[in-house]
Every structure is written in C-alpha cells, then in structure tokens.
Write a structure and sequence with these properties.
About 45% of the residues lie in helices and about 10% in strands. By secondary structure, the protein is mainly alpha-helical.
C-alpha cells in the first residue's frame, strides 16, 4: 500500500507539470539551480525596523486574502507586492540572534514560508497549481542571513529541525548549514496547520505573532482538524499531512491525542469511539490546485 500511495502521489504532482523540462528540473534540482526572489540592494534599515516593515508589508498582503484564499491576480501589479520585493533583500541581514526564543523563530519562519509561497506563485506566473513547476518547493527561495532557504528548507530544515523530507527521507540541510542556527529547540506539529503551500488542501492563509503564537497555533490546529477530519466508512479520514509528517507527532497514539485535543463535539466523541475500536487511518489525496479566490 505504501508503494502504491507513493506512486499515486508522484502521479498527482507530475501530471500537472508544464512540460518535460519542469519534470527534469524536479528530478535534478541541483542542476536546475535555485530561484532566489530576494536579490537586489537591501534597504537601509536596522534589523528590528526591517522586521517591523516586513510585518507591515505582510499585513498589506492580507488585504488580498479572503477566507484563507489568495487573490493572486490582484497582487501581481499591486503596491503591496512591490513593497515586499523592496524589503525582501534585507532578509540577508537577519541573524539568528535577532530572533530570540522558539516563539519568535517559529512565527517568523511560518510567516516567511507563507509569504514566499505567494511570492513564488506570482514570480513564476503559476495559474492553476504550484505543480506546474514540480521543483517549486526545492528551488523557490529567499536568502536569510547566510543561508539560502527554499520552502523545503524553511519547513523541513528549520521548523522541523532538519527532519527527513517526507518524499525522500533525506535531511534537507547539510551538517554545516548556517540555517541550523535559526531552528527552534523542538518541532511543534501544529506548524502543519499553519504552513500554506499555495494549494487547495493547505490550511487557510494566516499570519502569526510571537506573543500570541501558542493561542494562534491552537486555533489553527482546531480549524484544521474540525474542517478536514471525519469518521466514516469504518475509518478515520484525515489529511495526508498526518502520513507525510507522522514522526513530528511521534506515533499513532500521539496523533490520536492531537486529534482529540483539537476536535470539537461531536467529532471528538466520534474519534474516541473510532480509536477504541482501532479503526484504520485513511488519508485523503492532496489537492494541488491553486488556493486562489
């Protein structure tokens, strides 16, 4: 079953590619090269001021997000995108010591991931799915400090503390990568309810603040579980994220506890009954359609 699921996942991705070149780039991303979206002259801002300005630019982007969906067409020539592009080169001046504590680092990289996903869709002219460019997550990047961070590197390298990539099991960051210094002290599985990969199966787009992070991530997890988990047809049906990143929770018992904690009634009672009966998990196929308005 695992081999079949992997083949099915690969098919779902590759069938959307623009052409043979994009497929080849996905198979050999090292040869294809990075797509860095924050080249250029950094603004003359101290790091603290830069982070505040980036937050303001991010808030302007929110004006084009409706119920978690993004109006990419409106953003393409919008001043909010222009301001983001002006500020983004300043990320090269950010250092690990500028982000003190797990909450600051986690919020910063969740937000940066979600912004880079939007920026990447617009920069690459994506119209229907990020899988038009299957190498999207390994190549679309910002340079932060001394590290070039793709979406994969932000998620699997930084936020998941260099956990194995869900497709290959390989670690994204080399042992000597400067990106390690940005990682929080441990993996918080609630990030999977907050990271938005510009696709329909992703959670709604949100932005996070360090001082409110715990409550915001709890809310995101509750929304994710109550919207996308069901008990039906003799199984617990849940997003495939729980298979891709199962190790972030620990094991099946940890996933069960997570689901029960964040589920509202009557879903919580249905889940408890399903777990008592040892019903199997069934994972929903990922919908890679663009999350646009």
């Amino acid at each position: 079953m695992a081999i079949w699921d992997t083949m099915r996942d690969a098919y779902d991705i590759l069938v959307r590619a623009r052409g043979a070149k994009e497929v080849l780039d996905a198979l050999m991303p090292g040869l294809a090269g990075a797509i860095v979206l924050n080249d250029g002259e950094p603004p003359e801002l101290e790091t603290e001021a830069l982070i505040k300005s980036l937050r303001s630019a991010r808030n302007e982007l929110k004006m084009h997000i409706d119920k978690g969906k993004v109006d990419y067409a409106a953003l393409r020539d919008n001043a909010a995108l222009g301001e983001l592009e002006r500020l983004a080169p300043g990320l090269r001046r950010v250092r690990p010591e500028d982000l003190e504590g797990d909450a600051a680092r986690t919020a910063f990289f969740i937000n940066l991931y979600n912004v880079l996903s939007i920026h990447g869709v617009i920069a690459l002219g994506i119209e229907r799915s990020v899988m038009e460019v299957p190498s999207f997550f390994s190549r679309v990047s910002y340079v932060v400090g001394e590290a070039r961070l793709s979406l994969d590197a932000m998620e699997n390298g930084v936020l998941r503390c260099n956990g194995g990539h869900p497709a290959t099991g390989r670690k994204v960051l080399s042992a000597d990568s400067p990106a390690h210094a940005f990682a929080p002290s441990k993996v918080d599985p609630r990030i999977h309810a907050a990271l938005v990969c510009a696709s329909t199966s992703c959670p709604p787009v949100g932005f996070y603040r360090p001082e409110q992070l715990d409550a915001q991530l709890d809310a995101a997890a509750a929304n994710y579980v109550n919207a996308d988990v069901t008990v039906e047809d003799g199984a617990v049906r849940l997003p495939i994220t729980f298979r891709y990143y199962a190790s972030d929770w620990g094991g099946r018992a940890d996933i069960e506890a997570f689901l029960c904690k964040h589920a509202d009634e009557p879903l919580r009672s249905a889940l408890k009954g399903a777990f008592a009966d040892r019903l199997p998990f069934r994972y929903e196929r990922y919908d890679w359609s663009l999350n646009f308005v």
